[in-house]
Specification:
It is built from 2 helices and 12 strands; from the N terminus they run αβαβββββββββββ. By secondary structure, it is mainly beta. The longest helix is centred in the first third of the chain and has 9 residues, at about 1-10.
Length: about 140
């Protein structure tokens, strides 16, 4: 049970629009993008996952809110030496990172990611927004 508490302490969500309050509640609310305009599409990126085969948080999965349509997406994951170990162009199920590189499990630790998304909000002005962001994800084994 102590381990579960440790894992839950690390698992929070970020949004590419930098609105952590709405991301933690898991709802899509108006946010300001880097240009300062209002947008309605949240993209959720976890900061930790546990690829240990227990079917709980086994994948590093990027999700988006119901109020947006993803037009383009790219995410790259790098090890601590800057070597590209994973890349995807989709947020669809089955494209999430499973914590492996070159067919082998990666070591527990911190990995860097860089993401690009072009999304269309389905509410309000239905504007197309572009986001570039980077961060880290902790692999917990």
């Amino acid at each position: 049970m102590k381990r579960l508490g440790y894992i839950l302490a690390f698992i929070t969500a970020l949004t590419l629009s930098f609105n952590q309050a709405s991301a933690q509640k898991g709802i899509s609310t108006p946010n300001l993008n880097s240009a300062g305009s209002t947008m309605f599409c949240n993209v959720f990126i976890p900061n930790a996952f546990t690829p240990n085969g227990d079917n709980i948080n086994d994948l590093f999965e990027v999700k988006h809110g119901e109020n947006c349509q993803v037009l383009e997406f790219n995410m790259k994951i790098f090890d601590r030496w800057g070597r590209l170990i994973y890349e995807t162009n989709s947020m669809e199920k089955g494209t999430a990172w499973d914590g492996t590189a070159d067919g082998k499990e990666v070591l527990q630790g911190v990995y860097m990611w860089a993401a690009y998304a072009k999304v269309k909000t389905l509410q309000g002005s239905q504007e197309i927004e572009e986001f570039k962001n980077q961060g880290t994800v902790v692999v917990i084994r």
